[in-house]
């Protein structure tokens, strides 16, 4: 009999008892047919008697790339710290694995021939935001690993990864409801998947909470208004006018689909002597650095940029190692960051 009191038996220990090599023991553990049946049977008996536990090797995908081309629309590259956070987090994560990130700025006027030339020299491609048409078809045709960041492909031909915006909108509404708010609105600009998803999630929470509501009354879609300034969805131009028109008079809380819209709303409300959160509560989305600095500090939904970057790396490496490029859509969790702009009220 084998001495069962041996602490943490090793492959070498089992091999010595069985009178075989460590390689033979390893083959038995991994189900190889190269070991004679009687020898395998004896090794399995020893493993059972010693209580040896085989620890599976950590699966590591080989890094089949040394650099990645990261295509960014010019206006996204400079638009706000939200996109800057995504870019910097991805650069940091990839460069920590010795993978260079080449930022390729483009716009809807960039010629297909130039984009094609850039792609032809690529090992793998990341695309920030929903690609313009001049890039989309090239991505469909390439055999390179391609991944969309913070966007989805409506034809599901290109894999993508983004924060769970729909659930984030749901969480925002649920948080307001938990704090007694049922007379609510969402300020959005439904001209892209990410904002539509936040709006849809918000409305779903109202539905599931049995809160009677009219979608057309709840949703303030800045994209439907005439405006001369399209910066920040035109919020700075439109919100003071909408407040003056009394659009928020019977509302106790507002969800803004971005922190920047929330900042604009709070400033506009203050200029009309409407205090946040005493008179009306506000919750944002993105958790930009300024959100914790402004007064009152903004309650918002936070994206874990580090997790997004790590998941991006894992997904792109997997795509590069698996022929056929599995087409799927992945999401990263978000969470409510509770600060000072949402007030609890007694439900009516």
From TrEMBL:
HTH lacI-type domain: residues covered: 9-63
Molecular functions per Gene Ontology: DNA-binding transcription factor activity; transcription cis-regulatory region binding
Alphabetical keyword list: DNA-binding, Transcription, Transcription regulation
Keyword DNA-binding listed: yes
SMART domains the UniProt entry points to: HTH_LACI
PROSITE patterns in alphabetical order: HTH_LACI_2 (PS50932)
Matching InterPro entries: HTH_LacI, LacI/GalR-like_sensor, Lambda_DNA-bd_dom_sf, Peripla_BP_I
Classification via PANTHER family: HTH-TYPE TRANSCRIPTIONAL REGULATOR GALS, LACI-RELATED TRANSCRIPTIONAL REPRESSOR
Protein name: Substrate-binding domain-containing protein
Native source organism of the sequence: Vibrio astriarenae
